[in-house]
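Example record

Each entry pairs one chain with its bound ligand, glycine.
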Amino acid sequence: MLGRRKFLHNSLLGSVSALATNHEWQTGESVVGKPIVISTWNEGKPANAVAWQILQKGGRALDAVEAGVMIIEDSQNCCVGLGANPDRDGIVTLDACIMDEHFNCGAVAFLERIKHPISVARRVMEKTPHVFLVGAGAQQFAIAEGFPLEEQKLSTNAKEAYENWLKKSEYKPAVNIENRQHGPYAPLQFENGDWNHDTIGMVALDTNGNLSGSCTTSGMGFKMRGRVGDSPIIGAGLYVDNEVGAVAATGQGEDVIRICGSHTVVEFMRQGLSPEQACKKTVERIFKIKGAKAKDIQVGFIAVNKKGQVGAFALQKGFTYAVKSKDAEYLKDAKFLI
Ligand code: GLY
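Structure tokens for the complex follow.
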């Protein structure tokens, strides 16, 4: 027979584990549970809403992270996708990657005139023996897969921003340029905030406990022709290890690439750090490398671990991220280092 103390102890453990298996609850640091989705920037909120439709029905995280970012790729006149700012030759080029719970991954870069690079990345993953297709080859593959070739044309806002940029033709990275790079026009409003941004990263944990992630971008506005940032690079812009966690990056791609940013965050989680602590430690590594120049750039990470804890951290103020689970839905300013 169980003693009273042991009975109470077991009951308590039982109720905690019921909470843990059914839903998420608030810890001091973050929401915990499954399913759950976390995305970068303000546009993460509408993207999460789409992903949630899949997750809440017990759908696969991979399907959720593809569908979620697709609505942002669809946006016109701003943001990610064909409506975004062009390179310095006036042409919009898109990069994206996707990764599932089995280390399957696919990516495209320097892709022109295709509306949904994230879906092309998924086809690369599922239908080719390769991981990464770029430029004309990526476009050729997309067309062969039935993706329509869109008109080569700048959106109204991108055209205006490009014409302004041409006056000085200067390319220099700026902090949180992702939230301002569309120039002096009034940003399009989406719910309570503007969603002027060039990248969306999304990571999710589904009901079955599987992780996946996606990342899609038009890259830095007015970049050199042919420039590719971190977003389509597995390990830099995105990484998923189904035993540990999933991570996506945003901000100055060059500085994320040089430390394999998303992979680094996953490795810190593997060592036992929480998602937020792991993101912070990775940001600190960038800070150490950049020294005084760190103030000229922004980098941010979002992460979810296998338990469904989420977290984020940025180099500087101004990075927002969005979370959606059964009991929680919020858009938050990430903590930052400098
Ligand atoms: N993080 C987006 C880019 O650097 O292209």
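The longest strand covers residues 105-111.
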